[in-house]
Design goal:
Layout lengths: L13 H31 L7 H22 L2 H9 L2 H13 L14
Helix pairs in contact: 1-2, 1-3, 3-4
């Protein structure tokens, strides 16, 4: 039985967006594995293709970058804030957090006689 989403699917819902991005990555990985294993199988049957390693490498680079986006770079907090209507407050708090840098030691002023 396939999984069911408990509410109406909406791309603005951060949990749904995260799930959709993860499923898209899984589909991308499955297609990569299926196509490349087929191509390398035919390569082994003495049907040479000189650029197969380049094609596989470039596609693997695209798959790795897609995975980095899904698992590392995607920020679903902004989507959630936009869905709730308080994105401006979230952005302001992020800017405040970025601005609060620990001040370095103040340069010592030269002693005056």
């Amino acid at each position: 039985m396939p999984p069911r989403w408990p509410r109406t699917p909406d791309r603005n819902d951060p949990a749904f967006r995260r799930l959709e991005d993860f499923i898209n990555f899984a589909l991308h990985a499955a297609i990569y594995l299926a196509v490349n294993s087929g191509l390398w199988f035919f390569q082994l049957l003495n049907h040479p293709w000189d650029n197969l390693s380049i094609v596989s490498g470039v596609w693997l680079l695209g798959l790795v970058s897609h995975g980095c986006y899904v698992f590392i770079l995607a920020d679903y907090r902004r989507i959630e804030a936009a869905a709730q209507g308080n994105w401006q407050q979230e952005l302001a708090t992020e800017l405040e957090e970025d601005a609060t840098v620990t001040p370095d030691e103040a340069p010592s002023s030269p002693e005056q006689p």
